[in-house]
């Protein structure tokens, strides 16, 4: 009799675990953070640090930074425009340059190691440049900058994207921050 009770208890326990897994696994996958900019979408810009790997050619591989004008300097091929390209587009551009008289069928991989920083200005305690972290919000950025000053107007936060003033958008504390964003916290009138 005891054996039957133990077996039915195990079956209930197993059933309970299965139900939990069926319920929580989709929740975990739906709630998982998706990268802000996947490799297919993310556009490189000044300040991005990249790892470039040319397979079977360690002398051509290494870590490189996209310079101010969006240029990357690589061994053998020299300067190459990287700003505005996706990592996959840069891979193709490097492979084309290497195939043009240097290597036969080069295989290239480009990985973003560190994203360019974002900037926060205005009514925060420590305005300046900060390292971008995937999934960060305006509230996270404000916290990194030491919090709001007492004069901050929290309902009129502005984000400048793409480096052009016509790309300004109003933001809330929950707005996602992207690499290179300029966040401005205005002063309230009274």
UniProtKB/TrEMBL annotation:
Transmembrane segments: none annotated. Residues 118-164 form the Soluble ligand binding domain. One of its GO terms (molecular function) is polysaccharide transmembrane transporter activity. Keywords: Signal. It comes from the Bacteria. It holds the Pfam family Poly_export. Residues 37-112 form the Polysaccharide export protein N-terminal domain. InterPro entries: Poly_export (IPR049712), Poly_export_N (IPR003715), Soluble_ligand-bd (IPR019554). This is Polysaccharide biosynthesis. It comes from Rhodospirillum centenum (strain ATCC 51521 / SW).
């Amino acid at each position: 009799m005891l054996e039957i009770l133990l077996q039915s208890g195990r079956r209930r326990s197993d059933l309970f675990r299965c139900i939990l897994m069926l319920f929580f696994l989709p929740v975990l996958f739906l709630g998982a953070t998706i990268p802000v900019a996947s490799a297919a979408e993310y556009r490189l810009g000044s300040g991005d640090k990249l790892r470039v790997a040319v397979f079977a050619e360690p002398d051509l591989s290494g870590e490189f930074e996209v310079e101010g004008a969006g240029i990357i300097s690589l061994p053998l091929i020299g300067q190459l425009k990287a700003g505005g390209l996706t990592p996959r587009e840069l891979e193709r551009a490097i492979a084309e340059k290497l195939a043009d008289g240097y290597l036969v069928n080069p295989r290239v991989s480009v990985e973003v190691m560190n994203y360019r920083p974002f900037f926060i200005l205005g009514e925060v305690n420590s305005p300046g440049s900060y390292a971008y972290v995937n999934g960060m919000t305006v509230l996270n950025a404000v916290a990194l900058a030491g919090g709001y000053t007492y004069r901050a107007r929290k309902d009129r936060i502005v984000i400048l994207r793409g480096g052009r003033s016509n790309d300004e958008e109003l933001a809330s504390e929950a707005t996602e921050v992207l690499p290179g964003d300029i966040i401005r916290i205005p002063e309230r009138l009274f």
